[in-house]
Each structure stands twice: as structure tokens, then as C-alpha cells.
């Protein structure tokens, strides 16, 4: 029995490390891939319109960038709050928020790709396509590892993954075939591709920083670990009245923190050779 318990503990520790890596990938993908490509799409769209109109002024998209990110973040926050109120009093963990956030993010990616395809600018299409493909694998990895960490049934995890996988191509097809020429010109004029990518980045950031990371830090310390931590801090003369609150970040070990940082930097390494010229 002791051998089995030790084996289970090691398996849980390995799963926790993989989950932390997935969380780092989610954060890094949003910051390193999606936001830069969304901003680039805005200015590439301006460059294409400038060739047609010969307007010399360089636009300032700072408010557009900030507003798109905030709207995506706030949208997922409202969805999360509404789901928490619906599940209030239930012992079932609210795992749907992560899946819904990534599905909304993938759907926004689909809209961005469909909008890019309607602009007839091949360079924009290639950039958006590469950006989406580069972060789909880390996002899927982060989704599956987190659901495994939450001990969700494997059949249900497959359903979540299928839903996440289908949302982007379906929205791409609907966007491409569902708009007419006037709408295409409108999307091109307002740089809808970049706005959609930045909106999806806002949803991505909420899912990664507000939902995934707190779940990892709050669930990382067992009762015995908390007791040992209290004794250690008391021996150092540190107050331990609010262990579960102010010291919740200590739930991540230093090794797990290194894994989290490596996961956040991994998208940068993957996209290092991606040509932006």
C-alpha cells in the first residue's frame, strides 16, 4: 500500500508539472504570439489601404489595441461570473470556463482568419494562419493538462478537445462565405483581422491568468504541507495568520516556477525564426 501511495504521489507530481508547463504555454502564447501578430495585422492592413489611398499619415492604434484586449478580458470575466453564479452551492468544479474561454478564443481566431482571407492580401493571410497554427498546439496542450489535473473524465476531455478543435475552422468558413463584398470592404477598412486577434488574446489572458494559474496555486499545498510551512515560517518569526490568502503563491515550488517560466518562454523560442518582414 505504501508503494502504491508513493507511486500515486509521483504521478500527481508529474501531472502537476505538466499542468504548470501548459499554464505557462497559455500565458506565453497570448503575450508572445497573439498580441504581436494582432498588432502587426492592424498595421499591415493600414499599409495595404495606404497603397490605394496614398495617405501619408501614420495611424495611432494604441486605443484600438487596448480596447480590444480589455473587451476580450471583460467578456470572459462576465461569462465566468455568470457560470459561477449558476453553479453556486454545487460541489462540481467549474471546468467549463477554461473550455469556453478557449473555444471563444478559437472562434475569434476563425473570424480573424476568415476576415484575412476576404481581404485578398496573401501576406496577411499567411501571417494570421501561421500565428494561429503556432499557438493552437500549446493551447490544446494547456487545456488537456489542466482538465487532467482537475480529474475530469477522459471521454469528457475528448469532447472538450473536439469542441475546441472545431470552433476555429467552422468560424473561418462562416466568416468567409457569410459576408458580401460591402462587408468585406468594411472589414478591410476597420482592420477586423487584427481586432479579432486582439480580442481573442484578451480572452486567452483571462483564462490563463485568472482561471488556470489560481487553480494551480490554491490547490498546490496539502494539509501536511501547510502545517510544515507554518512551522517553518514560525521558526523564522513570520506571521502565518493568512496562509491560504497572502501566501497562496507559495503553493508553486521553485522547480514548478521554473517550469512555468520555461513554458511562458517556449512560444518565443518556437516563433524565433518566424519572419516578420
Automatic annotation (TrEMBL):
The protein's UniProt keywords, in alphabetical order, are: Golgi apparatus, Membrane, Transmembrane, Transmembrane helix
Q: Where are the transmembrane segments?
A: 17-35, 61-79, 100-120, 126-148, 160-179, 191-213, 257-274
Q: Which domain of life is it from?
A: Eukaryota
**Its principal location?**
membrane
Give yes or no: UniProt keyword Transmembrane: yes
Q: Single GO molecular-function term?
A: metal ion transmembrane transporter activity
Q: Which InterPro entries match?
A: ZIP (IPR003689), ZIP9 (IPR045891)
Its record classes its membrane topology as: Multi-pass membrane protein
GO biological process: any one?
Answer: zinc ion transport
Could you confirm whether the keyword Disulfide bond appears in this record? no
GO CC entries? Golgi membrane
Tell me where it resides: Endomembrane system; Golgi apparatus membrane
**Which PANTHER family does the UniProt record give?**
SOLUTE CARRIER FAMILY 39 ZINC TRANSPORTER , MEMBER 9-RELATED (PTHR16133), ZINC_IRON REGULATED TRANSPORTER-RELATED PROTEIN 102B, ISOFORM E (PTHR16133:SF0)
Q: What is this protein called?
A: Zinc transporter ZIP9-B isoform X3
**Source species taxonomy:** Eukaryota, Metazoa, Ecdysozoa, Arthropoda, Hexapoda
What is the name of the gene encoding this protein? LOC117146246
Amino acid at each position: 500500500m505504501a508503494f502504491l501511495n508513493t507511486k500515486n504521489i509521483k504521478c500527481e507530481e508529474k501531472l502537476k508539472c505538466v499542468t504548470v508547463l501548459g499554464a505557462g504555454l497559455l500565458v506565453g502564447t497570448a503575450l508572445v504570439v497573439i498580441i504581436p501578430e494582432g498588432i502587426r495585422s492592424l498595421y499591415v492592413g493600414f499599409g495595404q489601404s495606404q497603397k490605394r489611398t496614398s495617405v501619408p499619415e501614420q495611424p495611432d492604434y494604441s486605443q484600438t489595441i487596448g480596447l480590444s484586449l480589455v473587451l476580450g478580458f471583460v467578456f470572459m470575466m462576465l461569462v465566468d461570473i455568470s457560470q459561477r453564479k449558476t453553479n453556486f452551492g454545487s460541489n462540481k468544479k467549474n471546468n467549463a470556463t477554461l473550455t469556453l474561454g478557449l473555444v471563444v478564443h478559437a472562434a475569434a481566431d476563425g473570424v480573424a482568419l476568415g476576415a484575412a482571407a476576404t481581404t485578398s492580401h496573401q501576406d496577411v493571410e499567411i501571417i494570421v494562419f501561421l500565428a494561429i497554427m503556432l499557438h493552437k498546439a500549446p493551447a490544446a496542450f494547456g487545456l488537456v493538462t489542466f482538465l487532467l489535473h482537475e480529474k475530469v473524465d477522459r471521454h469528457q476531455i475528448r469532447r472538450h478537445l473536439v469542441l475546441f478543435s472545431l470552433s476555429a475552422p467552422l468560424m473561418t468558413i462562416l466568416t468567409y462565405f457569410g459576408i458580401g463584398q460591402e462587408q468585406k470592404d468594411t472589414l478591410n477598412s476597420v482592420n477586423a483581422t487584427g481586432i479579432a486577434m486582439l480580442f481573442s488574446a484578451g480572452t486567452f489572458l483571462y483564462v490563463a491568468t485568472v482561471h488556470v494559474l489560481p487553480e494551480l496555486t490554491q490547490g498546490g499545498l496539502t494539509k501536511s504541507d501547510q502545517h510544515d510551512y507554518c512551522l517553518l515560517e514560525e521558526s523564522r518569526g513570520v506571521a502565518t495568520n493568512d496562509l491560504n490568502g497572502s501566501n497562496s503563491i507559495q503553493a508553486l515550488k521553485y522547480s514548478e516556477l521554473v517550469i512555468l517560466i520555461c513554458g511562458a518562454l517556449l512560444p518565443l523560442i518556437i516563433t524565433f525564426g518566424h519572419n516578420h518582414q
